[in-house]
Amino acid sequence: MAEVEIYSASVCPYAHRTRLALLEKGVDFKLTEIDLQNKPEWFADVSPYGKVPVIKYGSDRVWESTIINEYLDEVFPEPPLMPNDPGERAIARIWIDFANVKFVPTFYKLLLNQEPEKQQESAETLRNHLLFMENEGIGKISSGSYWFGESLTLVDIAFYPWFERWSVLEHYRGFAFPAECVRLQKWWDVMSDRDLVQSIKHTADFYIEQYIQYANNTASGITAQEMRQN
């Protein structure tokens, strides 16, 4: 059987998603770490967007983290990381889309914005997103520890990497996690304590150092460029 190859970067939250999915699936994989500040020339032939993650498996090459993760869930069906019910799967995809389209861009905008007024606007938007996630998301559709009950899904994985990086917002923007988001805080604690999450977890200081260029808006990577355009 072919081995899964993943092109990743330890600092990248999108690649973090796929590393978590591979670990949760118990899939053996070959990891190639990419220096995003000094990408090798050959990487352009691997990643059409010039970003991580990218995976190769047999003749398949897949990029974009949430698409990769659904691919992995189909190719390696055990344990399942999406709900079995079609309606619940649709809701799961809605929340994954919310992470990609609403939550994550606002996280980056709060970091990248240099003007206090725009920072305040982004902080308020992010706070509203968190309250929406608390009240309309995990607080409404789940009675368990995770977004869809007692089993981890791709929704949990879609959000978690940015929570692990929350120290960046606290350090550079003074953005405290809302006390009203009780269910989200409990979910965050449960996710943080998972053995497989712990196995690749980085410290707050690591992220604070790595994200300084986002905080002063000198980051030159593709993600930073895309977020400035949103």
UniProtKB/TrEMBL annotation:
Residue span(s) of domain GST N-terminal: 2-80
Catalytic activity as recorded in UniProt: RX + glutathione = an S-substituted glutathione + a halide anion + H(+)
Keywords: Oxidoreductase, Transferase
Matches recorded under Pfam families: GST_C_2 (PF13410), GST_N_2 (PF13409)
Top-level enzyme category: transferase
GST C-terminal domain segment(s): 85-212
E.C. number: 2.5.1.18
Name of the molecule in the record: glutathione transferase
Originating organism: Funiculus sociatus GB2-A5
